[in-house]
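Input record (one chain):
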Amino acid sequence: MSDDVKVKIGADTQQVKESVAALQSDMNSRFAHINSTLKEFSAKTSESMTKASESMREHFEKMHESAEGFVQSMAKIKNFFALLGEVAVAGYAGEKLLDMAKEAGEYGDQIERASKKTGIATDELQGLKYAAAMSDVSFQSLQMGLARLSRSMMSAQEGSKQAEQAFAAIGVQANELKSIKVEDVLARMADTFSQTQDGAAKTAIAMQLFGRAGAEMIPMLDKGAGNLRELTAEAQRLGLVLDEGAISQSVEFADTMKRLHAQTKMLGVRIGEFLIPAIQAISNAMSNALTPGTALNGVLKFIGATVEALVSEFRAFYDVIQLLADSLVGTIITAFRAANKAMHFDFS
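The corresponding structure, as predicted from the sequence alone:
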């Protein structure tokens, strides 16, 4: 091998070594940079994780506090609704108790008034009320019939021949009526009716003595006096009869409620009386303000004109938009047509 060749090979070898060294140095530099970057990233990540962990801890603490506050709020709401429920129940119970008291008062008042109309004692009348109900006879019809019977008894005592004949038909003479009670006449009539065949004659006698309620009372009378006594005693046994003291208290309560109702109604009238001048003044002011030529009237006209102008401007704006839309659509259509001609090599 010649010296020139050796020199050439040596030079090339040296160049390769230098290139490898430079490459190694560059790689070391790059790896160092990567290592530095990784360390920096690790440090930042660690710091971020620490901050995130701390933030999460703080958030969990706040969530815990919020949860405790929510639980406490729910407990308060629960207690509130429990109290509200108790108030509602108490109010409902109070209302029902008041309704029961009012019903008792109305019942006693009804019995007391019926007793005065018919002349029958309140306890006896309540027994007859029960007996009538068992024959589907309303208490109103019973009251009307007994009141009419009492008047018929007076008519017979005063010499009415028609009344005397009606009582004679049931076995009661006119001279007996002065010493006999209305309920006793009713019992005698029930015995007679229980033994009399149904028909026009029976209905005529019933209506003669009981008035319009006579026909309705026939089913009750047909059961006889014994049945009336049994049902009256049954009403006493079942606790369906109030004594005189209870009736008096019921009547007093009913009268109190009537007075309270009247006073409450008048209270509304009194409040309205005080409100009338103020409402009248407001009405007059509104009327004056709405009179043509006033300031308010001018304001209303101005508002109307403004609205009308706005509507007009909106219409003009809409027309411009419509014109632009039409132009744009036309341009697009023209462009599509030109493109279509170009695709078909139509340059006419």
